[in-house]
Design goal:
This protein is about 40% helix and about 20% strand. The chain contains 13 helices and 14 strands.
Length: about 375
């Protein structure tokens, strides 16, 4: 349990349930912000039941006026928030996943009394988060305008190139599905099979390839996690399985050395007025460089992501702007150290990734409270 002093003029008690992969809830009462103990991955039913019992134990002592959850409609915590809202007649509000990540870092600065400039750029990278457009986000850049601790404006100004998750969440468990969708952008069917035949026999590949062509149960994602999973698999550091959370990415990081020099490719969409960090060219480079040192290629892929995100952030920031980096990928030392060296702030006290998500949800609400009250 962690307790922080609340610096916002909030009269209402607020309960934030966080996400789903890390069970930590956050409660605001008077002048205190309290983070619960860590209940682990809530996808494991025993962990979720412990989490749920702890939440209801709190509700017996304290009745919040507001309950916050993630935007994802299928998260266990979303259903729990809906249940509590109906049972206790509490207002239920949902916070977009990556904004909550950014506000976990931004809020950490706020609660120690440091001033936040009006112009803020937030970078959030992770595996999965439900986007405003119903797609799966995970490599996001936002512009925020904040005045006197109040959020006045938020825009999504950049993201990683959308790639295809064949079979939806099955692509999390089998990163080769990401490779097939990605390679389909620039390779023939025969060459795609050449690179994935160690993971699927001919019949299995035909089914997946046809599924991709028909766009059946195929989701678009801007996830940084999925791209790095695919890199780890392609370079041979991980298997076509997830293992524990972020295992392929951890193996990629552990096997990384000095990166080769490669310039990130960035596309500006004039109509939507936002930037896309293209990740397909990264894989074209990896294929062309397959005879090079794989550990250096591992470092290159992570540097490509970090450098590309930084370049977009700088294109959209002002001299007075402060840039924050948050989300599960902020735990990746190669990416985070590059961005920190550029002056970008990452969490120091509040846990990075989904463990700090409930705190971020709460800070986001407090910065929006003039709208909700």
């Amino acid at each position: 349990m962690q307790v922080f002093k609340n610096i916002f003029p909030a009269k209402k008690r607020v309960l934030a349930l966080g996400g789903e992969s890390e069970g930590i809830f956050c409660f605001l009462k008077n002048n205190s912000i309290v983070l619960s103990d860590d209940f682990g991955d809530l996808l494991e039913e025993k962990n979720f039941q412990k989490f749920k019992r702890a939440v209801f134990a709190l509700l017996k002592k304290e009745k919040p006026k507001i309950i916050l959850s993630d935007l994802h409609p299928l998260y266990k915590t979303t259903f729990l928030a809906q249940e509590i809202s109906q049972k206790y007649k509490i207002i239920h509000l949902q916070v977009q996943h990556h904004l909550a990540h950014i506000f976990s870092a931004l809020g950490e600065k706020m609660i120690v009394g440091e001033k936040i400039p009006k112009d803020v750029i937030g970078i959030a990278c992770d595996g999965t988060g439900y986007g405003w457009d119903g797609k799966i986000w995970g490599g996001e850049i936002f512009h925020l305008r904040i005045e006197k601790k109040k959020l006045k404006e938020v825009k999504r100004i950049g993201h990683l190139e959308n790639q295809i998750m064949i079979g939806g969440d099955l692509a999390v468990k089998e990163p080769a599905r990401i490779l097939i969708g990605l390679f389909n952008k620039f390779l023939s069917k025969e060459k795609i099979y050449y690179f994935v035949k160690k993971y699927y026999n001919k019949n299995q590949f035909e089914l997946l390839y046809n599924q991709l062509q028909e766009k059946f149960n195929c989701q678009e994602t801007s996830s940084t996690g999925r791209v790095l999973d695919a890199v780890s698999l392609f370079l041979g550091f991980s298997k076509n399985e997830r293992g524990f959370k972020h295992k392929p990415i951890k193996l990629l990081e552990e096997n990384s050395t000095q990166p080769y020099k490669i310039k990130p490719k960035i596309f500006y969409n004039k109509k939507e007025k936002n930037y896309t960090l293209l990740t397909t060219p990264l894989f074209e480079y990896l294929i062309k460089s397959s005879k090079k040192d794989k550990k250096r290629l591992a470092g290159t892929a992570q540097r490509y992501i970090a450098q590309g995100l930084y370049e977009i952030a700088k294109k959209t920031s002002q001299k007075s702007s402060m840039i924050f980096f948050a989300g599960g990928i902020a735990n990746n030392k190669i990416i985070s150290s590059y961005l920190e060296a550029k002056g970008i702030y990452t969490n120091k006290k509040i846990p990075r990734g989904d463990k700090g998500l409930s705190f971020g949800q709460l800070i986001f609400y407090l910065c929006q409270s003039s709208v909700y009250n």
